């Protein structure tokens, strides 16, 4: 279990960690063909509240580019919102903070619909193969 403890993180993020439920969520999402970075990022975001990309990196073990790509996918689906906040001293780049804009149930429903659609396509292909052979 990875625990975040860094001066750059908020008090909520310092105690943030992925537990058994989040790891199970990642495993189940992976079985549904959700890529690893998206699955780990969703597990981090599922705990609610805002979380920085740096915290997601530390907790999930993802690299910065992986978090960015996952966030792009989540934002394209309108599942996450991002805002920037200046650091305490006002120096350097602002910190990007993310939060889910929809319930996890909505995301799961969208994943379910995608899986069902793909399954129907596969079954139609199998049926067509049976008919032409």
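Q: What amino acid sequence fits the structure above?
A:
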């Amino acid at each position: 279990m990875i625990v975040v403890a860094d001066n750059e993180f908020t008090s909520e993020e310092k105690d943030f960690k992925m537990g058994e439920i989040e790891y199970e969520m990642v495993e189940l999402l992976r079985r549904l063909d959700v890529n690893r970075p998206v699955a780990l990022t969703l597990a981090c975001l599922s705990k609610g509240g805002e979380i920085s990309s740096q915290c997601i990196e530390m907790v999930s073990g993802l690299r910065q580019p992986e978090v960015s790509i996952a966030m792009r996918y989540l934002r394209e689906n309108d599942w996450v919102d991002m805002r920037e906040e200046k650091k305490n001293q006002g120096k350097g780049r602002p910190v990007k903070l993310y939060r889910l804009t929809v319930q996890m149930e909505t995301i799961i429903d969208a994943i379910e619909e995608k899986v069902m659609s793909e399954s129907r396509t596969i079954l139609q292909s199998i049926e067509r193969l049976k008919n032409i052979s």
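Q: And what stands out in the fold?
A: The CA atoms of residues 3 and 17 lie 5 Å apart.
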